[in-house]
Amino acid sequence: MTIATHRIPEPLLEFGHGQKMEAPKDGLFLFGPLEGPDGRSQVRLGVIGTDSGVGLSRRWFERISFHIPGKIDKKGKPSLWAPDWPGFETCFGIAMPSRGMVELSLAGGDINHCIKKNNRADAVRSTVLLFAEAIRAHIRVEERRPDVWLVVVPDIVYRYGRPQVAAPPRDERPRPISRHSKTLSAFSSRAAICFPTQSRMPRPISSPITSTISLKLSSSKTGLSSS
Questions:
Q1: Distance CA 64, CA 139 (A)
Q2: Extended beta strands in the chain, E state
Q3: Cα 13 off chain centre by
Q4: What whole-number distance in Å separates Cα of residue 148 and Cα of residue 212?
Q5: Which DSSP string do the residues of 127-191 spell out, in sequence order?
Q6: Cα-based angle 98, 23, 33 (whole degrees, multiple of 5)
Q7: What pLDDT score does 169 carry?
Q8: Residue 120 backbone dihedrals phi, psi, to 5 degrees
Q9: How do beta strands 13-14 and 20-21 pair?
Q10: What does pLDDT average to over the chain?
Q11: pLDDT in tens, 110-121
Q12: Are 94 and 37 in contact (CB under 8 A)?
């Protein structure tokens, strides 16, 4: 039995100065990004996470702003998959700030309460809404609008927020809702029927946000890592 194979060639990626290459890193390092900084001197960043997560993001900004040596293989030669990092500004033509222009801090206890719910779908949804509502609240009242939001994901979310992960141990889960709380919840539901305009879900974020990056920063080792 023979299996026919077909090799699909790597697509060419376009970079600065009208140049095209297969490897994204090589293209960025040699020619820069396709679009320039549009007259800006720094990236306008928004950061959201716990206090420790926001602090780790500042260290990460500082590290990627400068040169980072590449990996060396067992033969003592530079590794092709992890070359030297020339620095953010050298690569993209725009500086990386030392901290976000907007930094939103969330309480670790609130995140734990959401992500440790027994219902895993509700746990993930509640956790996402916790971050999203904080960003929405900022956009509604503040004029400073970052181009990019970086979400620093705590370890507890990385642990329990992935697909097919079991719920936390019973003693770590939030306490069940009391009968009094259930009564209030039922009353709120009936009130929503009487006043439907008050029960609408918040509208999606409408702002000049171009992208959101989710980071997992850890200081458990000598360096910082992101994924």
A1: 28
A2: 13-14, 20-21, 45-49, 102-105, 148-152, 211-215
A3: 25
A4: 6
A5: HHHHHHHHHHHHHHH-S---SEEEEE--HHHHHHSSTTPPPPPGGGSPPPPPHHHHHHHHHHHHH
A6: 45
A7: 77
A8: -65, -35
A9: antiparallel
A10: 80
A11: 999 999 998 889
A12: yes
Residue stretches of the chain with pLDDT short of 50: 179-181, 183-185, 187-211, 216, 218-227
Closest CA relative to residue 34, chosen from 14, 53, 48: 14
With contact defined as beta carbons under 8 Å apart, do 113 and 73 qualify? no
Task: Note if the pTM is more than 0.90.
Answer: no
Residue 117 one-letter amino acid = K
- For the beta carbon of residue 11, count every other beta carbon within 10 angstroms: 7
pLDDT value at position 79?
A: 84
| 221 CB-near residues (< 8 Å, 6+ apart) | none
